[in-house]
Amino acid sequence: MKKRYAVIGLGRFGFHLTKSLYEKGHEVLAIDMSKDVVYKLKDFSTQAVVANATDRETLEALNVQDVDVAIVGLGSPLDHSILVTLHLREMGIKEIIVKAITEEHGKILQMLGASEVIYPEKDMALKLATSLSTPNVMDHLPLMPGFSIVELAIPNSFVGKTIKDLQLRNNYGVQIIAIKELIPERITSMPTPDFVMKDSDTLVIMGSDESLGEISEIT
Predict the structure, then answer these.
(1) What pLDDT band is residue 180 in, cutting at 50, 70 and 90?
(2) pLDDT over 70 (residue 128)
(3) 131-216 has which fold?
């Protein structure tokens, strides 16, 4: 469903987010103080504006209050993102996603009413650490502390066996929620117990981080 977004702060995070949302067909209002950055996004946003987002009257003049989701990607100084978040909450925007620099910064943003606080640098570091320490894991999505969903390349010992043969749920406490097949190219959600693994398949598994770590070490 097409949504209206406001992205405030067009550093690397905000820049690529704006471009991606626009390319997916959404309306995106992009706001930053830098003329150069705004100019680069003029063809990759619905409206790109040079403006001081810490001024509430400016935000209201740009009709930011009419968007479905506001994303604040401002970095330093930290008080800028804090002030913008306060303005957005007072303007009645229901979904406000804010980039935090530190844990303390994130706590303040949550207290001010941010719907979600994200840590892009921290999340990227954790993802890289996971890929380096568990090379079989192709992607990693944390669900809550201690639990995740991962994409796992099929270990050689799984090839030719069925889900029933492997007994992953009984032996490791993990659940296969989908299998990405390369030949033929398709995704099988909640595969049946008689599904036979191929070496070109990718498992999408949900479970505790400890159990997923054990699975990722299988060869």
Answers:
(1) confident
(2) no
(3) Alpha-Beta Plaits (3.30.70)
On whether the CB atoms of residues 70 and 6 are closer than 8 A, the answer is: yes
**What class has domain 4-121?**
alpha beta
Q: Would you list the domain boundaries of the chain? A: 4-121, 131-216
Structure tokens at 139: 């992607």
Place of tokens 């069925």: 162
Of 91, 78, 92, 86, whose CA–CA distance to 114 is shortest? Answer: 86
- Dig out the tokens for 143 from the structure: 């669900």
Cα(94)–Cα(115) distance, integer angstroms: 8
Query: Measured between alpha carbons, how far is 97 from 113 in angstroms, rounded to an integer?
Result: 10
Distance CA 184, CA 190 (A): 17
Residue whose pair of structure tokens reads 């930011």 in the numeric block: 64
Q: What is the pLDDT of residue 215?
A: 84
**For the chain, what percentages of helix, strand and coil (3-state, to nearest 5) are there?**
40, 30, 35
Q: Are the beta carbons of 3 and 25 closer than 8 angstroms?
A: no
**Of residues 30 and 134, more confidently modeled:** 30
Q: How far apart are CA 10 and CA 28, in angstroms?
A: 12
d(CA 85, CA 109): 7
Q: Which residues contact 160 (CB under 8 A, 6 or more apart)?
A: 196, 197
pTM greater than 0.90:
no
Residue 178, beta-bridge partner list: 189, 204
Over the stretch 55-65, which tens digit does the pLDDT of each residue have? Answer: 999 999 999 99
